[in-house]
Task: structure prediction
Amino acid sequence: MKTLVFERDEKKNRVTVACKTGHISVYSYCAYCRHCKGVQVGNRVAPAPQSKALTDVRKGSVSDDILMNAAMMFNSLIREGSAIVCDDDSNSGYATLY
Result:
């Protein structure tokens, strides 16, 4: 596991991290990357809510509201957090979650 520290641009309201793919948007890429395992908020790591939602989708027991709530929770964690916890130890870069 590695930790990718946020690079915040307050003027553009962007949060990026340095990935093998380059400097990527946390909101657009990390939220939908299979390597994202969570967000570091203070001393704890909050698991990525979209991973749980994806598990429920595969079981067939999820509604659109659950997916929307997972995305909103991830965005809230990004506002409070300082880094992404990434399991891309092989340094392959972005890999789609869905």
